[in-house]
TrEMBL record:
Residues 137-158 are annotated as: Disordered. Residues 53-141 form the Methyltransferase type domain. Residues 137-152 have a biased composition (Low complexity). It comes from Nocardiopsis rhodophaea. Gene3D superfamilies: Vaccinia Virus protein VP39. This is Methyltransferase type 11 domain-containing protein. It holds the Pfam family Methyltransf_11.
Length: 222
């Protein structure tokens, strides 16, 4: 698995700064959930999942969609300002400030773990997979997205390693299919495919329209 010499502590803080600089009347991303949210909600609902932990919930736009779908939810994020926004958008979800790779003890294992656009910002992605596995009940499911290697990087990004860049003090890591399957080697991958969509500008963080090209992964621990 790739490693990076970037200062991960500083890069984590970059997300907090991005949330702090957003317009208080306008979310950093957008009010609507990620366009592939139904790709997670439908299979989790069909499997009878009731409790969901959303790792790296940010400002709560995806968490709000999970709550609206009827799940009992907990959102986890390291950025306190992002969580402050989530408190207004994702009620009555429980919110926890923690590193998504080590959230600490939870009362009971959960039915499902979701993780949207977070794997690209994790120094050691295997630790995120391990944490998802730890908090899942036997037979629980995980749904996640991450960017493929063909995603174009911005001209202002600073390259560290192949498929790893720093942009606005945040880490971006891209994946090919082999690296994803390696991450989930101890899981049964029930679905793995790519979806693309156009995103509007994200305030000063990424002030221009751009295209997302992501892997969608649904998996169950063996």
């Amino acid at each position: 698995m790739m490693t990076t010499s970037l200062d991960y502590g500083e890069l984590q803080y970059g997300w907090e700064l991005a949330y702090q600089h957003q317009d208080t009347e306008q979310p950093l991303w957008q009010e609507a959930a990620i366009p592939v949210i139904d790709d997670a909600i439908e299979p989790l609902s069909s499997a009878g999942a009731r409790s969901v932990v959303d790792l790296g919930c940010g400002d709560g736009r995806n968490l709000a969609a999970l709550v609206a779908a009827g799940f009992s939810c907990m959102g986890v994020d390291i950025a306190p300002t992002g969580l402050a926004h989530a408190r207004t958008t994702a009620r009555p979800a429980f919110l926890l400030r923690a590193d998504a790779t080590d959230i600490g003890l939870i009362d009971n294992p959960v039915d499902a773990v979701t993780c949207f656009d977070v794997f690209g910002q994790i120094q050691d992605p295997s630790s995120l997979v391990s944490e998802a596995r730890r908090i899942l009940r036997p037979g629980g499911r995980s749904s996640s997205t991450r960017s493929p290697t063909k995603t174009a990087r911005t001209a202002r990004a600073r390259r560290s390693h192949p498929h790893t860049f720093a942009y606005n003090d945040t880490l971006f890591r891209y994946y090919d299919e082999d690296s994803i399957r390696e991450l989930f080697a101890e899981w049964e991958v029930t679905s793995l495919y790519r979806r693309s969509w156009d995103d509007p500008p994200h305030g000063d963080f990424r002030p221009y329209p751009h295209r997302h090209d992501n892997w969608i992964v649904l998996a169950t621990p063996r």
